[in-house]
Design a protein that fits this description.
Length: about 350
């Protein structure tokens, strides 16, 4: 007997689905989703359902107080007959840390894997198979109880939805330096994947987009001096041929792709440094040529070259090269994720 239920309509939803040529990132939705509910201290049996609308009380804490944490991870099937998950256990642990920070019930590892594997298995026939493409899995957990009292919900729902995707951005976009607003401060929730962090970043990202850039570059909340991260991505600079990334300062999200690059880069001959990175110093190093390249990374973005950093007055600091070191790292990372090269860290797991 399966460990979860399968709702009527799942087979029909899967049979009706065809994978379009153009995928984008999040534009195409997989036809099934997983759901499990928590009440009175217990997780109920999960269920695989056709993808569709869900009911939420207007007064629920997820809507009123953003009681919501999520993850993003990928299943790959490039040149493979079965899907492979990349570092899914790390996503599970981070989701557990996110839930703990928001005092929500932790999704047990068995349930987390049940959900992501149920969706991955069902979607396996249409996981796109070109390099850089994948099935993006979006597990999330939210508080379903209505009420304005400032305490956690007493009921929760864990869900997994998915999207066949290609990479988040193309080319080498420019990034808007955000010198006024802040994404997260020490002691806040910046280190966990809470939707509220993304809500806080949306205005700056929308303004960045309207100005022709991709996302915002965030600075620390205390001095507005040190680089933290981009909206939804971690940040790297190549300085004197070595990799530099902001150290985890108690407000930055510890990206799993960030960590993967820090481990892979030395194997490609790059020294890596995690340290406080003052923005103005970096802009000087771009000007002098010591900083030769910038890039961002994340599950969605993979390794994304950055064309330049734009000040609010549109003065733009462009490093001499784009997508040289980034391309080497992206190739090396994708080769492990897509199982074209050995996986020295044991990051990849086949979904049976
Ligand atoms: C991810 O990379 O998984 C994220 O959650 C970032 C988001 C901008 C898509």
């Amino acid at each position: 007997m399966s460990a979860y239920d399968i709702a009527p309509g799942v087979d029909a939803a899967l049979a009706a689905f065809t994978l379009p040529e153009k995928l984008g990132f999040g534009a195409v939705t997989a036809p099934v989703m997983f759901s499990a509910e928590w009440e009175e201290g217990t997780w109920r049996r999960g269920i695989l359902l056709p993808y569709g609308r869900i009911e939420v009380w207007p007064g629920s804490r997820v809507l009123q107080y953003a009681e919501l944490v999520f993850e993003g991870l990928k299943a790959y099937k490039v040149g493979q007959s079965r899907a492979n998950l990349f570092r899914a256990q790390d996503n599970c642990r981070r989701m557990q840390r996110s839930a703990e920070r928001l005092a929500m019930p932790v999704v047990p590892e068995t349930l987390f894997f049940q959900g992501i594997k149920a969706v991955t298995r069902a979607c396996a026939p249409f996981i796109p198979a070109r390099s850089g493409q994948s099935l993006y899995l979006r597990p999330f957990l939210y508080g379903t109880e209505s009420g304005y009292l400032l305490r956690n919900s007493k009921s929760f729902r864990f869900m997994v939805i998915a999207n066949p995707v290609e990479s988040y951005a193309t080319g080498a976009p420019t990034v808007a330096i955000e010198r006024q607003e802040v994404r997260a401060a020490q002691g806040g929730i910046g280190t966990v994947k809470a939707s509220a962090n993304y809500a806080a970043s949306l205005r700056a990202s929308s303004r960045a987009l309207a100005r022709g850039h991709t996302v915002a570059l965030w600075l620390d909340a205390t001095e507005h001096r040190y680089i933290q991260e981009l909206s939804g991505m971690n940040f790297f600079a190549v300085i004197d041929g070595e990799l530099h990334t902001p150290e985890l300062d108690g407000a930055i999200l510890p990206g799993i792709t960030r960590d993967s690059l820090l481990k892979l880069a030395p194997r490609l001959g790059y020294a890596v440094h995690e340290r406080p990175m003052a923005l103005d110093e970096l802009l000087g190093q771009i000007g002098s040529g010591r900083c030769s390249e910038l890039f961002a990374c994340g599950t969605a973005a993979i390794v994304m070259p950055i064309g330049g950093l734009a000040e609010p007055d549109e003065r733009t600091f462009r490093p001499a090269q784009t997508d040289q070191v980034a391309a080497r790292l992206r190739t090396a990372l994708l080769a492990v994720q897509e199982r074209r090269e050995p996986d020295p860290f044991g990051w990849v797991r086949e979904v049976a």
